[in-house]
Every structure is written in structure tokens, then in C-alpha cells.
């Protein structure tokens, strides 16, 4: 009797006609050709962030085109255990161990190092290897790869537990929240899904435990590694040269060049200070955040202020009020409060608002941006906004958008706005 093959790759004629399991009938070759060309660019001296982003999009298109509908659904259905297993492996400290032992470690050795049961390690690590987070060259043996290394750096080490712990309890209750709220978006921070699920919003939850806040701060500082800074996207000479619409930059010792509002521990200001020290662009540099969050001794001549952007802006007439990843945390009503405090402090014809945040396209929003929008809505009634939404929000606050710059379609844009009167 011939041996039974469990996976012989053939499909019956009934499978081919089943819309749930059939793969596309149109040729995939034009898509593969596009990918081939994009790969050639990726490997050439012409490599750039846009081409890289496009290549990733084409690979996603190909995967979706090849997957049958059933395969797509199964991939989505089993996403939650992947995140939970990864969070557990992070707690067990397995990735740093793999980095320390460059030749690799067996499941038994990992059990010895961690005190965990070997059988559990085998089950968790087979998923980690399937996700591409380490290598599994022989049975029950694991070796680090480049993704393992990233998991031991602040972006992975702090980002994964930070966002998992911050979000998961809320996401579990998200469907119930919307059911109870007649399927309407939250309009206030105090009535966000996170408030419904855990009784507080993201910033109170972070402030309640120092280790959470420390992880969050570390993740904030590390999450844009390798991506352009605002001053590499935005033409800084707009602030340093006078034009018909802007008065010259003030040179007096008390003049403030930039206030980084909600600047966390000052990572953006430090990079700006390094690129444009005060002998190149004069003016004080001020870091503002909540008193428990702000880094008081940020150094390099940066002045720290512990304050709330919901209260009066105490620094008047600065050249720039810079907000990075601030407005996406909040619903329109709170954004209007923050903007009104800022507009009141701005000097007409001199001060500008610079916002670094996502500007969503009207169609084909990248997966990361669409996911972030749901994340922000969940933990604080926040919103990722389209250009139309930004113009409406800023216009309502008495600001006119005077430019939007972007160098990377998957990343934040820089929006410049001035006071209308
Ligand atoms: C998403 S983080 C962005 C941090 C930083 N701008 C960046 O892009 O890395 C939001 C920041 O807003 C700060 N924040 C929240 N509420 C605030 C308030 N009422 N006043 C000032 N800062 C606040 C948080 O502490 C946090 O550092």
C-alpha cells in the first residue's frame, strides 16, 4: 500500500472552486516583477526610505494575493497568542541569554538558566522561531538573529512589555465598550475605553508605577531609531531667515528658540542641540513635561520645566512650540485646550507651531498607522488624523497650516502653523 502523504501540495477540483480556499486565478507574475525591481533598488546605492517602504508594501500585497481567504483569517485569528507568548519570553529573559551565547543554547540549557520547565521553553520558542525572532536550526536548539538583538535593545526590551501591559486589558474589553456606547467614538479622555476597562487613562496608569513610566520613557526615546528627525524633514532655515511673512530671529539672551511641549525626557531636544548648537542657532531651548516625567538634569544647556500643557503656557513668544506625538494622544476637545494655551503665548508674525505626528492618507492607510489610530482611541480617546482633520483642528484654534513636510510615508510628518491674527 502506498504511504499516505499528509501534505502533497495537490488540491482537488472542489478545492479549486471553493472561494474560501482557492488562491487567485490572475497571474502573480506582474507583482513578482515589481518586487524584483524594488529589491534591485533596495540593494543598490539608490536605497531610500520611500523605496524600502514600497518594497514592504509589495511583499504584503503578494502575501495577501497568494493566501486563500481561509489562510488570511487563520493568520488573524491566532495573532493574540503570539503577542502573549512573546511577552512571556521577554519576562523569562531568554533573548538576552541567546545574545550572550552566540553559538546558541538548547532548550535544556535555557531551562537551567531561567529555571523554567524545558517543555514550556520548547513550546514558546517554536513560536518565537516561527515569528522570525530567533533561529531554530536543529530540534530544541536556538540561536540569536538580528531581530533577537533588537529585542534586547530599548525599543524591544521596553517597548514590547510597555505597550502590551498598557493596552491589553483595554483591548480585551473594546468590543463591549463599543457595544455599550452605541458604536460611537470616545469624545473625552475621561470616557475612553481605557477608563472603562481599568478606571484610568494612559498617563495616570503610567504615573501610578515608576517601572511602567521608566519603560515608557525608554520606549519613547528609542522607537524612531534610524528614522529622520524633525529638523531633517523640515527646512530649518524657515526659522532662522526672515521672510516677508516672518520677522527676524531674536538674538537677545532671554529669547527662546524652541519649547518642546510634552518632550518627555528631552531626547528630541538633545538631538536638535547636537545638530544645531546655540552658536549656530541662537536662543534658549526649553523642555516641558509633567513634573513627574520631565528630566530635570537633561544637560547641554537645555532648561527643564515641569508643567501641564492643559494650563497656561508660561513661555511667551518662543520661535517654535514643538509638539511631537502629543495631539494623537487626545480627542479634539483636549487638543483645543492645548492649542488655545499655545496660541495665547505665541507672538503673531514671529512664533510658529511645529507638530510632528502622522498625517494619514485618505486611502490605503499603512497598517501601522491604522493600528496606532485604534491604539490611541483605546487608551485616551486619541486620534491619528488626516490632512483634512489637521487643517480643521488647527483652523478652529485660530491657526493656519503653512506647510506639511514628509520624507517617509510610514512615519510622522511635520506640520507648520502660524497664528491667523
Ligand atoms: C506620546 S508621549 C510623546 C513624548 C515625546 N514628545 C516624543 O515624541 O517622544 C506624550 C508625552 O506627553 C506628556 N504629557 C501627558 N500629559 C501631559 C500634560 N498634561 N502636560 C504636559 N505633558 C504631558 C507625557 O508625559 C509624555 O511624555
Architecture blueprint of SSEs:
Blueprint: H1 13-17, H2 29-42, H3 49-66, H4 69-77, H5 79-92, H6 94-100, E1 105-106, H7 107-114, H8 118-130, E2 141-142, H9 146-151, H10 154-157, H11 159-180, H12 193-198, H13 202-207, H14 210-222, H15 230-233, H16 237-240, E3 256-261, H17 267-275, E4 284-289, E5 303-306, E6 320-324, H18 332-345, E7 352-357, E8 359-360, H19 367-380, E9 385-386, H20 387-396, E10 399-405, E11 413-419
Parallel strand pairs: 3-4, 3-6, 4-5, 6-7, 8-9
Antiparallel strand pairs: 1-2, 7-11, 10-11
Helix pairs in contact: 2-3, 5-8, 7-8, 11-14
The structure holds S-adenosylmethionine.
What's the architecture of the largest domain in CATH terms? 3-Layer(aba) Sandwich
Beta strand count: 11
Spell out which ligands are present.
Answer: S-adenosylmethionine
Roughly what percent helix?
40-55%
Low-confidence stretches: 4-11
The rounded distance between the terminal residues' Cα atoms is: 88 Å
Assembly category = single chain
Q: Given the structure, what is the number of helices?
A: 20
Total domains: 4
What is the CATH H-level superfamily of the largest domain?
Vaccinia Virus protein VP39
SS-based structural class? alpha/beta
Q: How much of the sequence is in beta strands?
A: 5-15%
Instruction: Provide mean pLDDT, rounded.
Output: 93
Please give the largest β-sheet.
Answer: 7 strands, mixed
Question: Order of strands across the widest beta sheet?
Answer: 5-4-3-6-7-11-10
Query: Compute the gyration radius: what is it?
Result: 25 Å
CATH topology descriptor of the largest domain: Rossmann fold
What is the level 1 CATH name of the largest domain?
Alpha Beta
Overall form: globular
Protein name: S-adenosyl-L-methionine-dependent methyltransferase
Domain O-methyltransferase dimerisation: 84-146
Keywords: Methyltransferase, S-adenosyl-L-methionine, Transferase
Region (Disordered): 1-27
